[in-house]
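thread: overnight batch results

M.L. [08:02]
morning all. the overnight job finished for the chain we discussed friday. pasting input first so we're all looking at the same thing
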Amino acid sequence: MSAQVLSEFWRADAPTPTAKLILIFLANSSAEDGPHAYESWPSIDEIARFAGVTRMAIFDNLNRLEEMGFIVRGKIGVRNLYRLVRSEAS
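M.L. [08:03]
and the structure it wrote out:
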């Protein structure tokens, strides 16, 4: 976990409280530097447990975060990959 990464996304203007929790979770599990900087690969179930919401709520909020440019999603094998997108002010 990186305090720098976490603090950048703690201040983000997320569209919903659940989206904010997702950003905090992803930031908390992301590396600050190196080849996987700003990346994490938790499961949907891990994110849902942290946020205390359903898998469907996680899917909906991940879609919103991606549409708004907060994250980029991909895959590493069968795992989901989430890359946090830094704001210009960061």
